[in-house]
Structure formats: structure tokens, C-alpha cells
Amino acid sequence: QHQNIPQDVQVVCGANVTLPCRGIDIKQGNFVSVAWYKLVERRLGIVRWSGNSTKHYNYTREARFGQDYSLTLFGVTPEDSGTYACAINAKVGGQNQCLNVSLTVLAHLSLLSSHYGQSKWVNDCVCVCVWFSVSLCVQAIRTGCTLPSHFTS
After folding, report:
1. By CB count within 10 A, which of 17, 106, 113, 132 is most buried?
2. Where is the Ig-like domain (predicted)?
């Protein structure tokens, strides 16, 4: 069963973040496994617990289970933003459950006023935007530190 309980987590770039697996009574222990995925075009496996053992998938970032099977990600960047799923596989007779958590990693934006439009990452957490429009620079950081091509020269 897919639970549609909206959960949004916001964190500043570079921080560690813990994504909760709420809405599921994990303490009852009526499950055989718990897995975390990042949802992109398909599910990317991050980490899975089953039968007292933990399996780490080939995920690009350090991650591990926290308290109550939450997911902890370390030193997050804007690339980590997106939707994550906590999937619970129930024991026989139970019901599988899945809970989505939306993560937004807030980068730092440096603005320089100019009629020359340019934006670029100077490191994983800082986007420098050279443009006279603050709103376009804010939009640029939401789209991966890129200005629309018709605004650049």
C-alpha cells in the first residue's frame, strides 16, 4: 500500500539530514524488511534492512539507517533534492507500505548585478549568478544554477 502522507524536509547545503519513515508503526515489528530508495526515472536503491542485516546499494552518497529506520544522508548538496521512498515489506498476512519524503537542499546564492547573464556553481553549495534580475537568479538556483539560454549573452 502506498501512503500519500506528504512530508517535506528542507535543509541547508552541506548539512547532514535524517528523513523520517513516519506514518508506519515500525515498533510493532510486523515486517520483514525496510528499504530506502530515491525516486527518479526509476527507483534507485540506497539501503535495505532484512533479517538483522543491512545491505548498501551502489548509491552515490554516504547513507545509513537512523532511529526507527529513518534515512540519514551526510553532507547533502542540491543534487540530493528529490523524492525518497521508505518501503516496508510486511510479514505474511500483513500489508506492504511505502511512504514518500520530499527533500529540498537549499544552496547559497551569490548575486552580482550586471547586464551580462551568467550563473555557475563555484562549489557544491554556492551558485554565483551575474544578472540584473534577482528573481531570475533565484529561478536559476531552482533549476540547477542555470539561466535560460535566451537570457545569457
Report:
1. 17
2. 1-102
pLDDT tens per residue, the chain (153 residues)? Answer: 444 445 788 888 888 999 998 756 666 777 888 999 999 888 899 999 998 899 999 888 889 998 888 999 999 988 899 999 999 888 888 888 888 999 988 876 666 655 556 666 666 777 777 666 667 766 766 666 666 555 544
Question: What is the reported pTM?
Answer: 0.74
**Share in percent of the chain as helix, strand, coil (round to 5):** 15, 45, 40
**Of 37, 42, 31, whose CA–CA distance to 19 is shortest?**
37
Residues near 94 by beta carbon (within 8 Å), at least 6 away in sequence: 30, 31
